[in-house]
From TrEMBL:
A GO molecular-function descriptor: quercetin 2,3-dioxygenase activity
Protein name: Quercetin 2,3-dioxygenase
Requisite cofactors: Fe cation
EC number: 1.13.11.24
Organism: Mycobacterium basiliense
Gene (name only): yhhW_3
Coiled-coil spans in chain: none
């Protein structure tokens, strides 16, 4: 497979808007379907969502999906049919395994503040597993000390939360002015800029909401001239094997 690097700019994303939701889709989702843009590697969904105060997603079903949520601003309240309840805030990693089937809701309980978060879905290794929920706070030092691994199922990797997929890991990089680091070398990488204007070697400047999809690219240097945060999916397989 030849090495490729594809930049998907923020303005190119499909958008779903309602009276309480602004959702920007990196891949086909909901009413937006593009057969040429359904996934990258194992990543099926990367939604950049803003939910207005005192609103949110009512209880709805999922199955056979690993759903990871990373909050950028505000707080998001999760509740599900397995009895799990948690409040997700910046710096807290959260994963719900839908497994054999689960109902969950996601609400912004604040009466004044919107919540801004990125929600990402990958497929599990096995279908029909028992639904489960995990959340873990990541300390600020870890977030600023190179790559912090939010979630991973790769054997031998330490991570804040566990993924039921042995070929995937999600990292976050928080860069301060002058910082730089090498992104992982993997068959499939997906970089998403949550804030700031970092630069990727061979690509140049990236803006908030931009994504980069890489295949078979050796570790490239990521740098920042101002504070920035980037979510990086490292994947060693793709859908269908």
């Amino acid at each position: 497979m030849p090495a490729t690097v594809q930049v998907r700019r923020a303005a190119e994303r499909a958008v779903t808007t309602t009276s309480w939701l602004d959702s920007r889709h990196s891949f086909s989702f909901g009413d937006y379907y593009d057969p040429e843009n359904t996934h990258h590697g194992l990543l099926l969904v990367s939604n950049d969502d803003r939910v207005e105060p005192a609103s949110g997603f009512a209880a709805h079903p999922h199955r056979d999906m690993e759903i990871v949520t990373w909050v950028l601003e505000g707080e998001l309240t999760h509740q599900d049919s397995a009895g799990n309840r948690g409040v997700i805030y910046p710096g807290l990693a959260q994963r719900m395994s839908a497994g054999s089937g689960i109902l969950h809701s996601e609400k912004n309980d604040s009466s004044t503040r919107p919540v801004h978060f990125v929600q990402m879905w990958i497929v599990p290794d096995q279908i029909g597993i028992a639904p489960s929920y995990q959340q873990h706070e990541i300390d600020e030092k870890s977030l600023r000390d190179g790559l912090a691994t939010i979630a991973s199922g790769i054997p031998g990797r330490d991570a804040a939360i566990f993924l039921h997929n042995r070929d995937a890991a999600l990292h976050v990089a928080r860069l301060q002015p002058g910082d730089s680091l090498d992104v992982p070398a993997a068959p499939y990488l997906h970089l998403f800029v949550t804030r700031g204007r970092p630069a990727l070697e061979g690509v140049g400047d990236l803006d908030e909401g931009d994504a980069v999809r890489c295949t078979d690219v050796d570790g490239r240097r990521l740098s920042a001239g101002a504070p920035a945060e980037i979510l990086i999916w490292e994947m060693h397989a793709k859908l269908g094997g």
